[in-house]
Write a structure and sequence with these properties.
Distance between the termini: 26 Å
GO molecular function, one term: transmembrane transporter activity
Largest sheet: none
Number of helices: 16
Membrane topology: Multi-pass membrane protein
Subcellular location: Cell membrane
Transmembrane segments: 7-30, 42-61, 73-92, 98-119, 131-153, 159-180, 192-212, 219-236, 257-283, 289-308, 320-340, 346-365, 386-409, 429-446
Domain Major facilitator superfamily (MFS) profile: 7-452
Structural class: mainly alpha
Order of helices and strands: HHHHHHHHHHHHHHHH
CATH class of the largest domain: Mainly Alpha
CATH topology of the largest domain: Growth Hormone, Chain: A
Strand content: under 5%
Helix content: over 70%
CATH superfamily of the largest domain: MFS general substrate transporter like domains
CATH architecture of the largest domain: Up-down Bundle
Amino acid sequence: MGQQKRILVAVMITSFTGAFMGSSINVAVPSMAEDFNLNPDILTWAVTAFLIGSAAGLLPFGRLSDIKGRRKIYMIGLVCICVTTFICALMQHFLSFIFVRFLQGVSMSMIFGTSMALLVSCYDARKRGKILGMSVSFVYAGVSLGPFIGGFITDYLGWRMIFWLTGIVLLVNLILMMKVKLDWYGAKGQKFDFVGSFIYMVMIVLFLYGLSDWTRHEIVHYFPIVAFVLFLVFIWEQNKSSSPLVKLSLFKNTVFAMSNLAALIHYSATFAIGFMVSLYLQIVRGMDAFTAGSFLLIQPCLMAIVSPKAGALSDKFSPRIIASFGMGIMMIGLFLFSFLSGTTSFYLIGINLAFIGIGFGLFSSPNNNAIMGAVKAEFYGIASSIVAVMRLIGQAVSMAIVTLILSIYTADIVMEQYVDMILAASKNTFLLFSILCVIGLIASLMRGKEKQNK
């Protein structure tokens, strides 16, 4: 197997496992809550902590990969994610588990921040959309099989086995990548912006933690404000730095800026769908984890089928039109979910999940193609990281919204009201997500005409 194929296979595996861990945890939440003796809504932190860690590390490690080598940072990330994944399987205390999940997210940021850059470095620009579409399809395959396999593992082997098996797969991937000797650079020999990286990481952690824990501690209300001040300091520092963490001039490109904004809004509106539908099916409708996981296969299966075709289509036609059409479909599907009830037909729920899956597949690959096609090759590393930052911040915001709404609806209630409150929280969450898609659709249409950079 050549080095190019090894990298492709390795990125496919990490794309799959990263998504698999997230989606399999969604269906394992009720079982984890029972194990840790907590309410299921508290277990949103099992997902949120990972996302905060990933978002905090993405830009620094993306920039570092441009300077020190994309393969090198990817390999370090693989080692760290293997170690933290096995440790997660051993944790007996909830707070310790959440802390390791945060470290696991930081480890995964080394992979998220370099994988797309490795792919676009290895393949010709004419194949970019197809290759990125394959990568996204493996993400969706992980999302698809996560609830199904994770539900089976949770019911018959226990939720901790999800981490053991994932760690083994990642070890195999590490062995595969050890034979790749070639490396790629975007800014070899340049200085690393330690000050900017520190400001960025603190800013991201404060903002996302503050948003997620808003209702539980009064002091947390000030965290997003502090994060905004740090954001202004970060922009000032980046303009002054001789070797900035982020090349802010990239955002003068309308296609790059608006495509990233559309991605941020898209993931903010869609990431928590699996989590909320899983809670609805298990708590409101009484499904077991395996059955709920099997049901949740519908949406990501459609994503995995549509995404490569949409990516290849975006090599020939405008990604803006294809992606915007996908965003519009998701907007309608999420709005329909705001009418869920305790007796809604499972057939209608399944059809709507398929509808949303088609929209997701149509949006993601063309949008990524537009972003990577808007920058020169020397900026692939940082562009890849920015794409991943938008995705992970969006995912973290999505879970923060869910955490906030659930905490509002489930605070100070008796257990007899819990099911009704989960249903009400679900409906209002989906309504808010559909409104976000309207904003995302506007951003997607405003990106302008794409110009491909070789």
